[in-house]
């Protein structure tokens, strides 16, 4: 590497538990925010200007919060806990009220996926009560859309991502399973489009570049597996990246499609050029497993941040490769 690995520009402390999920909301507001979900059941709303928690909300009865997100068009926060509940929060005008909830029945760690449709409603995908089951409902009506269940035994669904390929086209969903398989689903038809065995071990995480229809998944082993979808919606395995140490909790591709970040069980965050999967940096700060990574959605590229949340109860914030560097 041509330059030494950077240090975090600052850290956020006081979450009071492992940081399972991070979500930025820096778009169109004077106050850039970072939402975090902790293993102790608290959701912190961090003001990135003051670098302090602006609000702390608890709505999962002390159960671990495994996913947080926001609805883009409203002041609504959505959170998922190990209490089998997905909660919708009204955070407008100083409020912090749970206005609705969805019971998932799932005891696993699979994070939900949220998709805003063209009609202004939302689709929510989550692991269901049965081992391999994925349920998709429409919000706010909570009307069921479909249940996705593979024909064969693949073990628990571990991770999923839903997206709409082009305007007017049907939503698709990609899921990773306990046996190392990836399945691509047509949400509207409730049918499987293709399948690939990406890992010998459990698929722990996946992320998809929806513009290029190319994605990458991580496992409990030492490999990241990249794959793509062809014009017929067939999953095709591509390159593998071999890591120094096994175990990846989460993967995240920056919005401009230039960088990939991985959250490692070995306490490190690794940065790769997304185009060629070239290793660019190893970020060492945390004293325990890194559980979550997220890139900010700042409109000004120079202000873009990477956040990493760890089992050590700290969030590190990094400013990396924001200049127009070649990050192949």
Secondary structure: elements and pairs:
Blueprint (H helix, E strand, L loop, with lengths): L9 E3 L6 E7 L7 E6 L3 E6 L4 E7 L6 E7 L4 E6 L3 E6 L6 E7 L9 E4 L5 E6 L6 E6 L3 E6 L8 E7 L8 E6 L3 E6 L4 E7 L5 E7 L4 E6 L3 E7 L5 E8 L5 E6 L5 E6 L3 E6 L4 E7 L5 E6 L10 E5 L4 E4 L10
Antiparallel strand pairs: 1-28, 2-3, 3-4, 4-5, 6-7, 7-8, 8-9, 10-11, 11-12, 12-13, 14-15, 15-16, 16-17, 18-19, 19-20, 20-21, 22-23, 23-24, 24-25, 26-27, 27-28
Protein name: Guanine nucleotide binding protein (G protein), beta polypeptide 1-like
Organism: Mastacembelus armatus (zig-zag eel)
Keywords: Repeat, WD repeat
Brief descriptors of the model:
328 residues; mainly beta; Thrombin, subunit H; Methylamine Dehydrogenase, Chain H; 28 strands; WD40_repeat_dom_sf; WD repeat; Guanine nucleotide binding protein (G protein), beta polypeptide 1-like
